[in-house]
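Form 7-S
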Amino acid sequence: MTGPQDPKTNPGGQAALLPGIAAVCIWNLLLCGIGLIGVITHNLPPLVMILCVIYAVAANGLLKLRRWGWALTLAAAFLSMCYGIYVLFHFRQLPMTVMVAVNLVIFLYLVRPEILERLK
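Output:
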């Protein structure tokens, strides 16, 4: 039964946003901002802007609790984690362990059943 007494919904009947989902959206927007700064300062190629748009759209969809936003965020986290592992082992850049760890935590958080049942 879904109603005002249900802790998963707010008084308007909409699904409540979890703090973890908000944190994932902030992470996506942070990656988007880092990519844009890299393009502006000519440290990254202009094609990175496509990834920035994907991160921004994924964060927007996830904030609205849409299933496509969840799927896009899940794909972005998985691909970022794979890229981080590649850079970590191929170029031996230890700071990439932070990116790999955060993306792994995000991926494991997003596949939880509690998250899936809140999406539209």
